[in-house]
Write a structure and sequence with these properties.
The structure holds 2 protein chains of 2 kinds. Chain A is built from 8 helices and 20 strands. By secondary structure, chain A is of the alpha+beta class. Chain B is mainly alpha-helical. Chain B is 71% helix and 0% strand. Chain B is built from 15 helices and no strands. Chain B is globular. Chain B starts with 7 loop residues before the first helix and ends in a 10-residue tail after the last helix. Classes of the chains: A alpha+beta, B mainly alpha. At the A-B interface, strand 6 and helix 2 of A face helix 11 and helix 12 of B.
């Protein structure tokens, strides 16, 4: 089998603004037709990374490669990528059709071909018949589609999307997530997608890149990122989790919350301090007498599909998701099966002087 | 101390205005069972009626009447032929006098000259002002805001003072000529010609071009420029295809705000042109103040007003929403 070739390579990218480092040694590759999501809290450097790929920022050091050729210093109009901007950035002086045709007109594509391509794009984003509209007569969702059409009509190798669904309401956002994913598969274009919404990342991506403070914490497919987070931050950011300090007594035995638990991890050494991550849905509530731990239900919240309960054992408080409700104040038992206990090395809290 | 007392009728006018204002409030409050927002505009409305609408009506009245108050179109014929009254007299005196009939073209010529000067002034302001505004509005330029202040500071000074200050720079013993003499050159005549007048006009009206353009440029979303580059525009095409069209409202209102006062300029030609050049504003002024011919002066004013309204109408076609924030 042939190794799928890298389309974009970022090698040792650093970026400084006025002496503040916003990107620290970013190494990343993107394969053809891959859907890559840069995920992280605001200020983690995900948008800056995207802007460096788009050519709107130049790295302070490090190189950007496109199909093996260095493009670090190339201006945006010479790159075979197109961008969908966060707030769409549609041209207010042009109508919908002229917005979409903007890039093609610059390339001096014949008029009949432009018309054909624009019509096909309007069809693709379900807005045929809107060509003559003024862009500010469109709703947010429609503007979003036009922005996508305006970028896609140029048939870019890579489409960069900077939190494109951030301004839409929840329902529309979910619909657009599916539509985008369909479009990506249908057209076979590489997508690089920036978001701070972990659910969005899990839904759409082939590969998720989790970032924090200008660094990449973990790269992997959604399932791997969710099931095997590299550290407590990733675990906390992707989905909800209980993060506890614990001690690895020996391989496959960990001590936390005042109790020894059998687990499946090994190789941390003996009596080593570790972070223990347990997903709220992995904690089972059982009878008081048969639980590994016992605790009191302190609060109950109804969340739609499940209840969210805070259960205090006295030493620690667990967040528990369950479809059956235990009344507030009741005594319950808690069980956690070994493969739901995720052990990871404790996070090195970064000293601020590191800048 | 200064005498601040006003004639009795001024107090009467103010009193009447106050009574009308309070009366309007009372009526409006009673009708709407509360205060209506538009009510707060009534002092200004009153001011407008007394000092703008009434004078306009008076101008129209004088323009269409003769010295005795009878209706006439003579005043407008006087615009076309400044010798009109005299020529009519010659025409009534028979063949011998008819030879002396000549059309006086000074009024029409002055209007054409004024329009031409105003056009030049507007073009120069646009050519100087647009790049300046572009520079000031560039977010990467840290000194942009400083330059904005530098443009504003001269506007705090009275416009007459600013114009007179130019005299001390341009006159025969002025700053420039002294410098030239010091360097061993002959002096040059800088004052009392159209060039000096144009310089004074550009100097005074340039901010009215810069600020509307600056406003519309700095309102532009920088992401639009990035989007244009993303779609294949280099710097120049980004300007011609996105920045320039989107700054058009500012340009239109800049043109309006420079062209209007330029056409009606007076005083600058008198100070810097030294009476060698006369613009339409000076002509109107001289009709009223020197000749005391209010009727012809009013007719000339009306012609100018109509011209201004026509050009406003044309400009408005380019900026129907008035986005440029000008007076158009």
């Amino acid at each position: 089998m042939m190794e799928q070739e890298h389309l974009i390579d970022l090698k040792g990218i650093c970026k400084e603004y006025d002496g503040t480092q916003v990107l620290k040694d970013i190494n990343l590759y993107v394969r053809k037709k891959e859907f890559v999501t840069l995920l992280g809290p605001s200020g983690c450097g995900k948008t800056t990374t995207l802007r460096i790929i788009g050519g709107f920022e130049y790295p302070t050091s490090g190189e950007v490669y496109f199909e093996g050729k260095e493009i670090s210093a190339l201006p945006p109009y010479k790159r075979r990528v197109n961008t969908v901007f966060q707030k769409y950035a549609l041209f207010p002086h042009l109508n919908v059709r002229d917005n979409i045709a903007f890039g093609l007109k610059l390339k001096k594509v014949p008029k009949s071909e432009i018309n054909k391509k624009v019509d096909r794009m309007l069809d693709l984003v379900n807005l045929s018949g809107y060509g003559k509209r003024h862009v500010d007569q469109l709703s947010g969702g429609q503007q979003q589609r036009i922005a996508i059409a305006r970028a896609l009509v140029n048939e870019p190798e890579v489409l960069l999307l900077d939190e494109p669904l951030g301004a839409l309401d929840l329902k529309l956002r979910k619909e657009m997530q599916l539509e985008l994913k369909n479009m990506q598969q249908q057209l076979g274009i590489t997508f690089i997608y920036v978001t701070h919404d972990q659910e969005e990342a899990l839904t759409m991506s082939d590969t998720i890149v989790v970032m924090r403070d200008g660094k990449i914490l973990q790269i992997g497919d959604p399932k791997r990122i969710y099931d095997e987070p590299a550290n407590a931050f990733v675990a906390d950011f992707i989905g909800e989790s209980n993060i506890l300090r614990g001690t690895m007594i020996k391989d496959e035995l960990v001590h936390f919350a005042g109790h020894d638990f059998v687990c499946v991890d090994s190789g941390f050494g003996e009596n080593a301090p570790v972070d223990v991550v347990i997903r709220p849905e992995d904690i089972m509530i059982v009878g008081e007498d048969i639980g590994q731990l016992t605790g009191t239900v302190q609060s109950v919240l109804f969340k739609g599909v499940h209840y969210e309960m805070m259960v205090s054992t006295g030493e620690v408080t667990f967040k528990v998701h369950s479809t059956t409700m235990q009344p507030q104040g009741s005594k319950v038992g808690i069980n956690i099966v070994p493969f739901n206990i995720h052990i990871m090395k404790p996070m090195q809290e970064e000293a601020p002087s590191d800048v | 101390m200064y005498d601040l007392s006003l004639p009795w009728w001024a107090y009467a006018l103010m009193g009447a205005g106050l009574v009308v204002f309070i009366g309007m409030i009372a009526v409006s409050v009673r009708r709407n069972h509360g205060v209506k927002r538009s009510l707060f505009a009534s002092p200004y409305t009153l001011w407008m009626i007394i000092f703008t609408v009434l004078p306009c009506i008076l101008v129209a009245y004088y323009a269409f009447t003769d010295a005795n108050g009878a209706f006439t179109l003579e005043n407008f014929l006087n615009f076309w032929d400044s010798n009109h009254t005299k020529n009519q007299l010659y025409a009534s005196m028979g063949e011998a006098a008819a030879a002396y009939i000549t059309r006086g073209t000074v009024n029409v010529d002055t209007l054409v000259y004024s329009l031409w000067m105003a056009f030049l002034c507007t073009m120069i302001c646009l050519l100087l002002g647009y790049p300046a505004a572009l520079f000031m509005a560039d977010r990467r330029m840290k000194i942009g805001p400083t330059i904005v202040i530098l443009f504003i500071i001269p506007m705090w000074m009275n416009f007459l003072l600013r114009t007179i200050a130019w005299m001390s720079i341009l006159e025969d013993q002025g700053l420039i000529n002294q410098l030239l003499h010091f360097l061993g050159f002959d002096g040059v005549k800088l004052m009392y010609n159209s060039g000096a007048v144009l310089l004074g006009m550009v100097y005074n009206f340039l901010p009215f071009m810069v600020f509307p353009v600056y406003t519309s440029l700095s309102k532009l979303d920088p992401k639009l420029g990035e989007a244009a580059q993303d779609l294949g525009c280099n710097e120049w095409k980004t300007f011609t295809r996105v920045t320039a069209p989107l700054s058009l409202p500012g340009v239109i209102s800049g043109i309006t705000m420079v062209f209007m006062p330029s056409v009606t300029t007076f005083f600058i030609p008198r100070i810097l042109g030294g009476g060698n050049t006369m613009m339409f504003g000076d002509l109107i002024e001289s009709k009223f103040l020197t000749e005391g011919n209010w009727n012809v002066g009013s007719a000339l004013s009306m012609i100018m007003m109509v011209l201004i309204l026509i050009s406003l109408g044309i400009l408005r076609k380019f900026d129907p929403e008035g986005e440029g924030g000008g007076i158009a």
